[in-house]
Design a protein that fits this description.
alpha+beta, GMP Synthetase, Chain A, domain 3, 4 domains, OB fold (Dihydrolipoamide Acetyltransferase, E2P), four-stranded mixed β-sheet, 436 residues, single chain, five-stranded antiparallel β-sheet, N Utilization Substance Protein A, Chain:P, domain 4
Length: 436
């Protein structure tokens, strides 16, 4: 050993971010094991390395005993009191004595063994360091890079110092993971096993959706809008119950943002997963009613002790309340914590009644509005020539017009005759006056 060895050891500690003293101690333990196994079997060996100069000292440790041990393996680790007194007059039974060992006895096999032991010790130190760093980070969101994907569809994410695993059940449905892809993941738990630390991460956890909403919505980040409950089916649909701690803030509008800008920023990180924002209510009935939206439901009966709810739903809203594959009611159950039993009702909803009325008006724009109204029959009669009271009156109109014309003609003829008689009388009077 020399100074170059110490420099190389320091460099390795710096590159792998390991403790220098711990690394040196691991190296000493590896040499001790190699000596005991390959050089001096059955003996107890201690190795000490100077951290400054790199000089190595190998010592054999023996315990002072009054009588030899019956087991042959233990005899190599002991020395009789009579022999020990010859070396040190002050020695006593139970004390330990050190005997120097020539390091040159270190064989090639011992070197190979120590190398393997040192490598193993370094890996153990790294694993312990990774565990110590991430054991308190369970429940946090960490950004990592996809390092590989195995044939079981397990995705391994490089977190910088350690590597985490994301099994298929924790992945977003339909999301494709490519090597080098950056991801935000939720740390589910961290355990230290025989093969090192095991870090389990998830993209399907509801906590990831909560984190993203806090990042994108200032009102959620500062506590003005509170996220009361989250129910999620990763990659498909989620429901988030919100409430406002300020009377001047609309919680749903704050989460959605102008033209949906805020919620779109959240869903873009989740492969365009649909996120429904609903109003939380302290009243379980109203909360369940809101959770089943967009369906319009009727009467809700609550059993608070059994956490069950019986919901009457109009027939036209039943399929909407259930959702595709039961997704809507399933998310409502997760969100509210109540077991929801949907029952079809014969009652027609206000929405259905309005749609029926609109359809009727579109079908018959001249529908009768009372006894004095006009319907299809009146409309047809108006433009038809069939014999009706109105058409009879229309037929009599030409006769009356002819009588009027004839009367007017007679009047004109009488007027002209009268004017002719007056002219003739006037001429006769003029002639008589001239002759006289």
């Amino acid at each position: 050993m020399n100074k170059e060895f110490i420099d190389a050891l320091n460099m390795m500690a710096a590159e792998r971010n390991l403790d220098k003293e711990q690394l040196l101690l691991s190296f000493e333990e590896a040499l001790e094991h190699a000596f005991e196994r390959n050089v001096m079997p059955g003996c107890r060996i201690e190795v000490e390395i100077d951290p400054e100069s790199g000089e190595m000292e190998v010592l054999e440790i023996r315990k002072v005993v009054a009588e030899p041990n019956e087991e042959e393996e233990e005899r190599e680790k002991e020395i009789l009191l009579d022999e020990a007194l010859k070396l040190d007059p002050e020695v006593e039974v139970g004390m330990e004595m050190e005997f120097p060992v020539d390091p040159e006895k270190f064989t090639r096999i011992a070197v190979q063994t120590s190398k393997q032991m040192i490598t193993q010790k370094i890996r153990e130190a790294e694993r312990t360091l990774v565990y110590e760093e991430y054991k308190d980070r369970a429940g946090e969101i960490i950004t990592g890079v996809v390092s590989r994907v195995d044939n079981k569809r397990n995705v391994f994410v490089d977190l910088g110092r350690g590597e985490a695993i994301m099994p298929p059940r924790e992945q977003i449905q339909g999301e494709r993971y490519m090597v080098g892809m950056r991801l935000k993941v939720y740390v589910v738990n961290v355990e230290l096993g025989t093969r090192g630390p095991s870090i389990l991460v998830s993209r399907a956890a509801g906590e990831l959706l909560t984190y993203l909403m806090r990042q994108e919505i200032p009102e959620v980040a500062d506590g003005t809008v509170e996220l009361k409950a989250v129910a999620r089916e990763a990659g498909a649909r989620s429901k988030v119950a919100v409430t406002s701690n300020s009377p001047n803030v609309d919680p749903i509008g704050a989460c959605i943002g102008h033209r949906g800008s805020r919620i779109q920023a959240v869903t873009s990180e989740l492969q365009r997963e649909r996120v429904d924002i609903i109003q939380w209510d302290a009243n379980p009935r109203e909360f369940i009613r809101n959770a089943l939206s967009p369906a319009k439901v009727g009467t809700i009966e609550i059993d608070a002790e059994e956490m069950e709810a019986r919901v009457l739903v109009p027939e036209d809203q039943l399929s909407l309340a259930i959702g595709k594959g039961g997704q809507n009611v399933r998310l409502a159950v997760k969100l509210t914590g109540y077991k929801i039993d949907l029952e079809a009702s014969q009652t027609t909803s206000d929405l259905d009644a309005a749609m029926q009325a609109a359809a009727t008006r579109m079908e018959d724009p001249f529908a009768a509005a009372g006894e004095g109204g006009t319907g299809h029959a009146a409309f047809d009669a108006l433009f038809s020539g069939e014999g009706t009271p109105e058409s009879a009156e229309t037929d009599e109109a030409p006769a009356e017009a002819e009588d009027t014309v004839e009367a007017a003609t007679e009047t004109v003829d009488a007027s002209e005759a009268a004017e002719t008689v007056d002219v003739e009388d006037s001429v006769e009077r003029d002639e008589e006056a001239t002759s006289s």
